[in-house]
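Example record used in the benchmark description.
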Amino acid sequence: MHIKALSKVSAIMDELQSRIETLLDCTDYYTGESLADGLDSSHFPKESGAVRRASMDLTRALAELRKS
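Model output (structure tokens):
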């Protein structure tokens, strides 16, 4: 494995974690409920889209990591 690929995966994982925390904070702040209480994340399209995008980026980076 290349150190550069590992660093990229690590950075994207951090970004994904940040996006997830933002989405969870939005649900708690605006509704008093959390996703664990059954609230659908579709009420926050910008934040849930950012989570999906970061997840997709992570998937691609992990595929590259496996190639190297």
